[in-house]
Write a structure and sequence with these properties.
There is one protein chain. The protein has 107 residues and is mainly alpha-helical. It has helices at 4-21, 36-42, 51-61, 87-106. The longest helix has 20 residues, at 87-106.
Length: 107
């Protein structure tokens, strides 16, 4: 249910996070569960598309225990994503995610 560009981008970002943070993630899903005190300690700044990436990199660097749990996923019932459903949206998100990766990875 994901486009080829989304799958490729996810793999590239996952590999980059592995190089930067030493932890390999299989997905950049927006679903996260974290204790409030741990979340606040991460000092997240990103407010757009890259927030989950920043969280993953900082969690890895902080040595937090991370467990990925596969969840079912299916196609949208109606409508089209404003981000992944258009080339423009994908490029904007990709630029923001790349900037976040560089900032979080180098910071």
């Amino acid at each position: 249910s994901m486009g080829a560009h989304q799958i490729l981008a996810g793999r590239l970002i996952g590999a980059a996070v592995g190089l930067i943070g030493g932890v390999r993630y299989t997905d950049m899903s927006a679903f996260r569960a974290i204790r409030l005190d741990r979340l606040e300690a991460l000092g997240l700044r990103e407010m757009t598309y890259g927030w989950n990436l920043e969280m993953q990199v900082r969690a890895a660097r902080a040595g937090l225990r991370v467990r990925e749990v596969p969840l079912p996923y299916r196609r949208r019932i109606a409508g089209q994503s404003k981000v992944a459903g258009t080339v423009r949206g994908s490029l904007r998100a990709g630029a923001q995610i790349t900037a976040t990766l560089l900032r979080a990875g180098l910071g």
